[in-house]
Design brief:
The chain has 432 residues and is mainly alpha-helical. The protein is 49% helix and 6% strand. The chain is built from 18 helices and six strands. It has helices at 36-40, 76-82, 85-94, 100-112, 118-121, 133-143, 157-182, 196-205, 216-228, 236-246, 251-262, 270-281, 287-295, 316-331, 338-351, 354-358, 365-375, 383-403; strands at residues 3-9, 16-22, 30-31, 60-63, 68-71, 74-75. The strands form two sheets. A three-stranded antiparallel β-sheet has the order 1-2-3. Strands 4-5-6 form a three-stranded antiparallel β-sheet. Strand 2 (16-22) and strand 3 form a beta hairpin. Helix 8 (196-205) crosses helix 9, helix 10 (236-246) crosses helix 18 (383-403) and helix 11 packs across helix 18. The mean pLDDT is 95. The structure holds s-citryldethia Coenzyme A. S-citryldethia Coenzyme A binds at residues 48, 232, 235, 266-268, 270, 294, 302-310, 359, 361, 364-366.
């Protein structure tokens, strides 16, 4: 990688230190501060990591100012229009778009891993019927290492590959089983004759007492939404997976940590929060009151589905999903969905409001995705589960990239200590 240097001067002592600057394929140059503490005794300070690159990666590139997203160099718009979820999953895992035979083989491998160990299936019964499906998913995925010992040696490339395939394949089965448990219906086994998303729909919505036909509109819509959610650079949940993985934890535990991080409403939990917010707003007339609350620093309310750490322009995924909303609602003959109308109105008013314009707050991927899930009959508490299914591809690809790195080391950030000065212990009868 090409480099140049920058020189940092400490105005207190006049001391100077020269630091290497790395040149990326796309995006900002990065000052390599790895030697700063050893050579000059300084830490850097960047809570929330607004200006910090935690790693090098070949997987995904985001341009927040131009609203651009590339997977392995391919624009998300082209993949969304021309590719499929499992083809993009292959691209993320292996770096290139597959030819026909390798893609067929990959699809076969994934479908063959979609069943769960039968003892694992009984885990779901241990959860209370009203357990949130994300809570079930965190628990079940974390327990996978108890069942699949033959793919937990992270130093073995074939173990890493089998573990990646297993997680991508089993997430829909775990998700559907979590859903079935929450509605008191029997789990449905995968059907190897169906597509990845067709299988998920059937495992979620079929019942033993009648035939089930996958709706091609729903199957295609889910496939497209999943492509858009596959990866997103070093977001909170991906960074969690990398940090967990850097300690040598087994891949299933790492993905479980990613699911837990994704659940937060500031992150993947936002899609569920958007629908709750739209239900709370209820009517277009109430929008001004909620916008006022979103601007009020004393009110914790935020406009869910708006804003993004990186995108200071329209999230390209939101643009695609917004158009999909029209198409899917039209095809499902649900085009007058009042919630969709309300979302469009809320977006229009917010995007013309000075507060949102000044802060570059645009709809993000979570603003519209819930509307499509709702139109497909997926309950609100399963929205983040859907996100987790798709993001598992990104998590396992990022984890694999990190583990395969030559100089991979445990992640161990430092801090600025602002606690009490050093002091001696005081016996209890001398304290006042
Ligand atoms: C995802 O990182 C990723 O790539 C994530 C993701 C992925 O694919 O992995 O893209 C998926 O998580 C999308 C984001 C989903 N979350 C939400 O929709 C929740 C609502 N959004 C916010 O909580 C917020 O915008 C974040 C968390 C998304 C981003 O937070 P930042 O970058 O820390 O922004 P900030 O808090 O510094 O906000 C900057 C300003 C602040 O006002 P000022 O202090 O400057 O006056 O904008 C305001 C914030 O108060 N602001 C909002 C707002 N988001 C930011 N005000 C009202 N409503 C909002 N949604």
């Amino acid at each position: 990688m090409k480099e140049h240097t920058v020189t940092v001067t400490d105005n207190r002592t006049g001391e100077q230190i020269e630091l290497p600057v790395k040149h990326p394929t796309h995006g900002p140059y990065a000052v390599d501060i790895g030697r700063l503490f050893r050579d000059a005794g300084y830490f850097t300070y960047d809570p929330g990591f607004l200006s910090t690159a935690s790693c090098q990666s070949t997987l995904t590139y985001l341009d927040g100012d131009n609203g651009e997203l590339l997977y392995r160099g391919y624009p998300i718009e082209q993949l969304a229009e021309k590719s499929s979820f499992t083809e993009v999953a292959y691209l993320m895992l292996y770096g290139e778009l597959p030819e026909k035979e390798p893609l067929k083989k990959f699809n076969d491998v994934i479908i063959k891993h979609s069943m769960l160990n039968e003892s694992l299936s009984s885990l779901f019964g241990g959860f209370y019927h009203d357990a949130h499906p994300m809570a079930i998913m965190v628990g079940v995925v974390g327990s996978l290492s108890a069942f699949y010992h033959d793919s937990t040696d992270i130093s073995n490339a074939s173990h890493r590959e089998i573990a990646a395939h297993r997680m991508i394949a089993k997430m829909p089965t775990i998700a559907a089983a979590s859903y079935k448990h929450s509605i008191g219906e029997p789990q449905v086994y995968p059907d190897n004759s169906l597509s990845y998303t067709g299988n998920l729909l059937r495992m979620m919505f079929s019942v033993p007492c009648e035939p089930y036909k996958v709706d091609p509109v729903a199957e295609k819509a889910l496939d497209l939404i999943f492509i858009l959610h596959i990866d997103h650079e070093q977001n909170a949940s991906t960074s969690t997976v990398r940090l967990a993985g850097s300690s040598g934890a087994n891949p299933f535990a790492c993905i479980a940590s990613g699911i837990a991080a994704l659940w937060g409403p500031a992150h993947g939990g936002a899609n569920e929060a958007v629908l709750s917010m739209l239900d709370e707003i209820g009517h277009v007339d109430n929008i001004p009151e909620f916008l006022a609350r979103a601007k009020d620093k004393n009110d914790p309310f935020r406009l869910m589905g708006f804003g993004h750490r990186v995108y200071k322009n329209y999230d390209p995924r939101a643009k695609i999903i917004r158009q999909m909303c029209y198409d899917v609602l039209e095809k499902l003959d649900d085009k007058d969905d009042p919630t969709f109308e309300l979302a469009l109105k809320l977006e229009e008013i917010a995007l013309n409001d000075e507060y949102f314009i000044q802060r570059n707050l645009y709809p993000n991927v979570d603003f519209y995705s819930g509307l499509i899930y709702k139109a497909l009959g997926i309950p609100t508490n399963m929205f983040t589960v859907m996100f987790a299914i798709a993001r598992t591809v990104g998590w396992v690809a990022q984890w694999t990239e990190m583990i395969a790195e030559e100089n991979q080391r445990i992640g161990r950030p430092r801090q600025i200590y602002v606690g009490p000065e050093k002091r001696d212990y005081v016996e209890i009868d001398k304290r006042q």
